[in-house]
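so the lab meeting is tmrw and i was supposed to have these ready like two days ago... anyway. pasting both below. for each one the top line is the aa sequence and the line under it is the structure tokens. i havent really looked at them closely yet so no promises
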Amino acid sequence: MASYDRLRAGGSPRPLETGDTWWYAAVAGEAAGSFSTRVRTRTRRACLGAVLLLTVVYAGLVLTATGRRWGDAAVTGRRADGTAAAVLRDHPSLAGLTTLSLVLGCVLLLAVGLVRKRYALTAAATGAVVTALAVTGLLQRYAPRPRPVDTVGGLDPSGFPSFQTALALGLALALVLVVPYRLRALAVGAGTLWAVGVGAYTIAAGQHRPGDVIAAALVALAVTSGLLALLARKGKVRPGPRRGPALPGLPVTVPLALLALVGLGAGFWLLGDALALPATAPYDPVELRLAHRCGQALAAGVVAAAGLTLLTVLRRVDVDGGPAPYRLGGPFVEAAGVPHDAELVGPFTEDRDHEIS
């Protein structure tokens, strides 16, 4: 067993479960309290937490009348928000640039993986993005929702979750599999900031409601975390250097953290007033503008928090490098004249009195 897969010193290992045999630990690098198990536990919790939050968002913003009314007001409020309206009016090419950036993001993900000859990881990253888009499409088509009532005019049916945001954030999170470990925070942070911009544009353009963008971010996080949990289950992770991607990624992770804090804080602070809308239209333009800004803040905060969550879960975890080398030890190998070098020893011990009973 590799050194980083041994039990933590001073720790209290959990009770043995099915599969926690010496053979399984030796072959798969997995044991109670091992490094792979700890990574799998963290990524699995991130996946389940994202699924739970997705359920809450779906129930609160799609199935309830108050949530639907707030989402419709946030979309309609883009006309009352002079700043957003002016940006879209003065830059009509933003729609084409958004589509072009999504295409270039797909090309970039494939190019980085193929140039670095990480073919299996590139296939896994592509599979994560495709899975996120498939889940998004299934939810858009089959998730039950009440028929929308057009009370303010010109509203499109809810596209829950947002396809564009799921693609953008899925590409950003999938970069953890193909970029070098030292550049992970920089690449994922920059990609997440781009995904925040894509989500903000879809809301400002009236293509999606804030809940659609929030749900898309949670779908991308759940799928990527689930894939990483599977890789950890198969022993495809290893400890990263202590001096890793933190310092090069500060120029993007610090603004991303500030965006998550400010976005979530301002969004929840405005949410109480934004939900206090009258049951029927017409609405006050001030209330519509407040709902729009609240939705933009919450959507930006959740997308930024999703990227930071994955970076935190993978702290000092390398999924890019190959398996650590090791040599077989024991009395029979040493008697054959194998020199004692600095390589890791496993899966057997160096004890000369060791025997298999």
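ok protien two:
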Amino acid sequence: MEANTRWVALTAVAPIAWGANYFVTHAFLPADHPLYGAALRALPAGLVLLALCRRRPHGVWWGRSAVLGLLNVSVFFVLVFVASQLLPTSVASTVMAVSPLIMMLAAWLLVAERPGVAHLAGAAIGLGGVCLMLLGGAGGISVPGVLASAAAVLASSFGHVLAKRWNTSAADAGVLASTAWQLTAGGLLLLPVAVAVEGPPPPMSPSAFLAYCYVGLVATALAFVVWFAGLRRLPAGTVGLIGLLNPVTGVLLGTAVAGEVLTGRQLCGLALALSGVALGRPSGKVRQPGFPDRAATGRADLPRRTAGRP
């Protein structure tokens, strides 16, 4: 129980960092360069993690890194950048609240992880809470921005569950290495497209440089490592519900820093969203079905050589 609580707390770093990322992107990064914005977020983070793990992809991980890089990085980062520029911070992060339900469905289909009653109840309560936050906020809502945010949820939810499946298989690469590979792959996929579509890179002001440091090192390198580590050790439904801290952070930050109005309805929505996170917290030791507890062996980051489902 205590170990699970620690993993929940560590995993929560990711959605909190992502919730703050909406404000940083909206306030400090150039709005007319979404492809460069995504590439400059992904590639430096991937290279930093590559320097730390000092491992290249091997075997099936060349293809897997490309697929995960496309879903979790290239497509996701561009859509999040667009949503961050078109929507208020609170609204952009709130739309992401549908991710727990999408992740539960994807986990059921891809890794045969049936959602429990507590997870479904937490998702329903949390989604109701974020709907209150969305409907209770002030300011106009951009339909293209909402669609971009919803598409980002769909792409990343399936990408995250694929990462969970492949990181608990016989060809497991380890969290640090697989995160480094997909971030680097996603950044390399984005860079030539950015050059072709957007031309020269945007000018880099001191504030933009610091913003890129945050989105690259904190909201990407650190956040993705702890998020995928949580996906390995906790049920996908639990991790999805922890993701509700993303809109909670976005609403609070938008109110405190960006001057957005927090209404009574949004306060009720915050309470419901946090209740949904609490409902999804695991009550006992969690092990991935069909695989031994690798933490006990001290070999969590070594490739597995035994046969298993890919």
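from a quick look at the 2nd one: The chain is about 70% helix and 0% strand. Residues 5 and 281 are 8 Å apart (CA to CA). will dig more after coffe
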